[in-house]
Design goal:
By secondary structure, this protein is of the alpha/beta class. It folds into five domains: 114 residues, no CATH class; 195 residues, no CATH class; 273 residues, 3-Layer(aba) Sandwich (Rossmann fold), CATH 3.40.50.300; 117 residues; 244 residues, Rossmann fold (3-Layer(aba) Sandwich), CATH 3.40.50.300. The protein is built from 41 helices and 30 strands. Strands 15-16-14-17-18-13-19 form a seven-stranded parallel β-sheet. It has a six-stranded antiparallel β-barrel with strand order 3-4-7-6-5-8. A five-stranded parallel β-sheet has the order 22-28-27-25-26. Helix 5 crosses helix 7, helix 19 packs across helix 20 and helix 21 crosses helix 24. The longest helix has 31 residues. The chain is globular. The two termini are 65 Å apart.
Length: 1141
Amino acid sequence: MLKFYARFEINEESGDPLTDHDMTQLHYTKITSLQKAVFAKFPDLRSFALANVASVDTREALYKHFGLLSQEKLRSIASYLSLVPSKEREKEENWYRYDIDFLRELLISRHERRASQLEELNEMPLYPTEEIIWNESIVPTEYFSGEGCLALPKLNLQFLTLHDYLLRNFNLFRLESTYEIRQDIEDAVSRLSPWRAEDGGVYFGGWARMAQPITQFAVVEVAKPNIGEKRPSRVRADVTINLSVRKEIKSEWENLRKHDVCFLITVKPQNLIGTKYSHKLPFVPQVGLTTVRGCEVEGMLDSNGRVIEDGPEPRPILPGDTRTYRVWLDCNQYRIDMDNASHGGEDVYESFNVIMRRKPKENNFKAVLETIRELMNTECVVPDWLHDIILGYGDPGAARYSRMPNEIATMDFNDTFLDINHLKNSFPQYEIKISTDEESKLVRPFRLTFEDVLAKHNNESIKKVIKVEPHVPPSRGPYKANEPKKNQIPFTPTQVEAIRAGMQPGLTLVVGPPGTGKTDVAVQIISNLYHNFPNQRTLIVTHSNQALNQLFEKIMALDIDERHLLRLGHGEEALETEKDFSRYGRVNYVLAKRLDLLMEVQRLQESLNVKGDVAYTCETAGHFFMYQILTRWERFETRSKQRRKTENDSAFIIDEEFSFHKFFDNAPKPLFKRNTFEEDFEIARSCFRYIERIFAQLEEFRAFELLRSGLDRSKYLLVKEAKVIAMTCTHAALKRRELVDMGFKYDNILMEESAQILEIETFIPLLLQNPQDGYNRLKRWIMIGDHHQLPPVIKNMAFQKYSNMEQSLFARFVRLGVPTVDLDGQGRARPSICNLYNWRYKKLGNLAHVENSPEYLIANAGFLYDFQLINVEDFNGVGESEPSAYFYQNLAEAEYCVAVFMYMRLLGYPADKISILTTYNGQKHLIRDVINIRCASNPLIGRPNKVTTVDKYQGQQNDYILLSLVKTRAVGHLRDARRLVVAMSRARLGLYVFARVSLFKNCFELTPAFAQLMQRPLKLQLLPQEHYPTERLNNAIPSTSSMEIEDMPHMAKFVYDYYIEKVSGIKESQKMWQKPGMVQTPNNPSYKISTHPGADDDTDDEELNQMDGEQENAKEENRELKFEIIKNLVEDLTSENEDND
């Protein structure tokens, strides 16, 4: 690593990056200067001096010439080149070594040809092999304590050049992916249980969902190398497997998509059949793993041996269980392996016996690595105003909007402010001057001119004054639907500052604590950019599909024409809308909209009695507008103005002269009010704008008539039509080359959840377009996030802590001192719950509605407190358990959480308002198991909204949260205050934490939160007389005394008794209701009863009837069981307590 950075591609004086060509020139300069020195002073090395550079610049050639020279001669050459001090200055500079080994190495290492970093990178296989995967010095798997030094690159605050930045990220991303691949291989192959058969072959004693034994493997094509390259241009192979597995697993294998990455594995086990595998012993020797190679799926082969292409046509159904896949192998790796085989090594491509696939979401590493490598091979043009900040140099505030030379003085804030008072309150530091005094005109939208910005541009004295100019946007038509949608959120002053900063050119960092309206701010910025800069395009990037969908759903509610919205990636299916915002969905929308608009043109034609087929295409409609509509409108304007000059009563003129009455017959009546000429003329203009808009849209859609294929249309939509394009950071990394080749352009980037995105995945979206004349056209970069919540997920502790890979670019900018806008008003949680985490922020207050609205003033029914820490001791002598490595569980806390959930459901709490969170994956699975056993199938209780981990729940919220902290021996990863902030900030109205208090109360990092939690009793306090919703105020003293729950068995017994009481009440009410009818029906009917009274779905099939009867019997048994299912809980607990006694 030292040698690498000693020869790094950077100018040592100026710090400017050097290209490969510059480095080659530098090398030639050094070696020619050595040759000249030798030629002039050392005649016995004349052969070296006269040789061409290429023949003497390798280490071997240099050693041949200089290796046998004496120490004196080597020193004289080095001092002549000023590499060491001369003899005269030896006494002044005595810190040099003069031994022969040092001098020889000095001359050779300085003048040997340096291997190009780019060439090495381009020749590097992207798939990890067995030599890297299980090499502890490269991919450490042991828990990293933070002590000691590792031979790994680091992500620090500063970087030498963009090449250095990309290279570090490339290496770390590759190693982190390798660690995850290692875990997947160990899991899948150990499940297959490979044993050595009696004939010496391999017998697989188990099965794995993600891996299958290979029945046949063959390399089918090795294409010739491209000119100037040594590797083959393409290597393809066929892999055959037998899918005699369950239907859903078979379907997963058959649905492997093009470019999915799989791994080919060779195992040669030494263990005999029946040998047990242990996860505590080393994996590789146990299974006899010898080879791992990556491959990329091209497709599955049909019965004729052709690749089945993905497309709209249904995939052919193949007979039998044998399936063959065509895959691409890594060309660089294949060349290395073949070179090794030609020198007597083993041909690894003859021995593969296992193929492993990975989950699609975790399998994007190759595409991301290719993107980074491609960026390193192209000239990365980052905007000038961002370059130094990304590398960590210069003034961190230089890209803030107030420091940018092109700061905009006058901006239309559109519908940001609800009224003039809201505007005044939003700028407490400014004096507000309004251009009009008429109350009726003081309505939004407002155009604001910041006079301090104008003064700065003109080098005048700065005055904090805002000139406000209300303006009426032109009406879009006479219909109600033409009225623009308007924002209804009363933004706070800091939110308005964030919106203002986002509208200005430059870099904007918005720190948004939980519940401070980050998404609302983002959406308003997008809307304002859309209206202020209609020719600019905005790219939205988020960490997750869920966050992107939340953002997109709010954008759709604003005044943005939906034809300008586009959502890329696979997550758009989860959008809660019937509209399809994917590329092909938008193309279909445009084509359907085009037909609707042409129908309107036809109606307009008929209303004007114009002959001909003018509504056939967008082109004919354009001619119709030009020669028929525009001429009529101009004639109308001329005649109206002439009559107004000559006639006294001008109120009727517009109504009489208007040419399009018949077309607007379906508009609200009367169309013209006939009060004043001006008012009616403005209505006529709005009608013409409506017509003009129809033809303007048709002109935009004209390209969709000319382009015939869906692919071309979707590309045109992405490159030309869409103004707001949304995607995840992963999609941006995967599709960069495709977007750049297509000519994709954008002017603004808005990133949500920036603190959760990896450095490199934040950087790639900056470079999704080719530079124009050597400059990047990006004007704004808005990053919204919260570095006090959880960072990007890095599974390997060494990469996470030592290499600092979990540092997001957002967090690095904050650490560098880049100015931020800190949102300071939360509107999610009760103030009391907010106090558990607001200590982590500079200033986090509460919005008015969380202090005043009834929802927050009312207490939680059945609970004495709105939040409480409940101490959970060992159950049967067991606290935390670890069934397998790092799979932590706590049965007592799981049972306690589920019992409280059941209690809440019995009080009447809606299940979708309750979520159960935990800090460990093992506990999540245990809680789900307990719910399945206790209450999942019980119609009175059911399942909570979600059972998941704190990490997965970041960015989400619910009214009531039950939180299990699991650990009883050591605090674990909750010691990270960022995880604590996320855990405490998910609840709106109620938070109940189940934990071992004696452990967590002594943890220094958690003290501010746990000090507040421990001010209340540590035993659960209930008010079982109440029902949801209660009328008791949160701060009021309850009329009845509370019930204290001693421990988990006590809670379980109480919930059981409470449940029986409820059920008996329900049964009584059922009997009372049945009395009037007195109709006897058989419990097990011998015939099929329709599921609906009007249905006619009986069948004559005897077998089906028999099956239906069996299902009915099963349902009856379930009906009898459903009131008994909860009983298991109490019986289990009482029997265990008896055993303990």
